[in-house]
Structures are given as C-alpha cells and as structure tokens.
Amino acid sequence: MGKQVWRIVVAGGAAAAFTAVAAVPAGAAEGGVSFSRVQVNGGKSIVIGVSAEVAVPASFRMTTTKKYKFPAVFLYRKGGDRLWHAIETSDCVKVKSGVCDFNETMFFDPSVWDMRNSEAGAWKVGAEVHFRGGGGDVDDKGLTVNVKRNSRLTVNASPEPVVKGKTLTVTGKVTRANWETRKYGTYGGRLVNLQFKPAGATSYTTVKTVYANGSGSLKTTVKSSKSGTWRWAYNGNSTTGPSKSSGDYVAVK
User: Fold this and answer.
1) Which residue from 116, 185, 205, 224 lies 20 to 30 Å from 24 (Cα-Cα)?
2) Which parts of the chain register pLDDT below 50?
3) Which CATH class is domain 151-250?
4) What is d(CA 49, CA 52) in angstroms, rounded to the nearest whole number?
C-alpha cells in the first residue's frame, strides 16, 4: 500500500496546509466530494507531553469522481489555526467506483515544533482534498477532539516497613507538560485520588481524595492495616490528560 506524506508547520505550532481552500463551511461538502466515516484517535483525547512524538490514527471515506491529490482530515479552530506537524495518508483503499477509504496518521512532535499551551482544549475536525489542476474541497465534519497536556505524578509512602496500626505518610507531586518551555511544571490545586492495592490483589481502590498545594505537592496520612501498594491517580480535565503514579509497596509488620 502506498502512502502520501507531507510536513507543514507555522510558527506557534498551528499548521496551515491547503491554503487555497482554507475556509471550512459548516454544512456538507461542496464541489462534488463527500466525506464520511471520519474518525480521529477512536474518539479519544490526544495527550501530548514535552518531548515524544505522538502518532494519532485517523480514517475517513471519500466519494468523488474527480481527480484529486492529498485528501486528509485535520484539526482546526475558529480563525484558521490548524494543529498537526505531519500527516501520513494511505493510498485509496477502493470500496467501489468513485469511493475510497483512507487510513491516516497525524504526528505531533513538541520537541521539534513550537506549541502554545493555549492550544490545549477542543478542536474541530475537518476533511479536505485538493483537485489535480487546481481547486479543492473542504468540509466541517461536526466532530470535536480534545487535545491535552500530559500530566505526571510521583509517590512515596513511609516509613517502610510500618508497624500495623501506625501512621503511614504518603507524599507525591503532580506536574503538567508546559509546551512552551518543553518541561514539566507545577500544577497546583489539583484534586488527586490516593489509591491502595492490598498484597495479592489485582486492582486499586480509592482510599481518599487530596488537594495538591500551590506547588503541586501532595501529602496525607493513613492508618496502616495491611501490606500493599500505594499510588496517586489524577482524572485530568478538558485541557490536561489523566495520570497515575508508579506504585510504592509498603510491608506492614
């Protein structure tokens, strides 16, 4: 199967491709092309850190009898900003005459391209194609994808081991990807769950919920009753991805 690959970038991280057909109409596609079966990342949020490239799967069906090049789905916001750093699209997987399915991968690489923290949040999904010989078609697909900054958690439970019935102190810190500095920074005031998995068990249970302080630090105490593993879990929000710390095993004597 062949592939079409191109890389476009504009300062600030908003990719501006296909400028000849930049406007995105709210209704159905015009110009003899229709797009259907559009999916981006299986409907899940796109979570991006500060260094690793993120590859996001997408797919769509295009129906047209016109000669074309560079069909793709993309993320955009009001004002014309588009968000991706590279796109790889398969050749036509023929369904029938004039109807093709395409598989696509959007690449986001915060270590190479500038990204603004304000780019976290909701993005609309559009579909677009250029025609051979000029012109093209663009369509708003009525879908929304959330793009989020990755979060991280650390954990430490002490003392280790602990005497049964004595106080165990569990600390940690929550941080969030800062796309502009390309580092993880303080994420204070977050509501984070303290979870426990008894020795021999396969799942965690939330024991209590704790607010991080202004610097993102977490601290709480619990009474020790049985050996097991402690961790912190953050549920995320509209601009920040969820995260879980590694587990810290504490033996109870």
Assistant:
1) 116
2) 1-2, 6-23, 25-29
3) mainly beta
4) 7
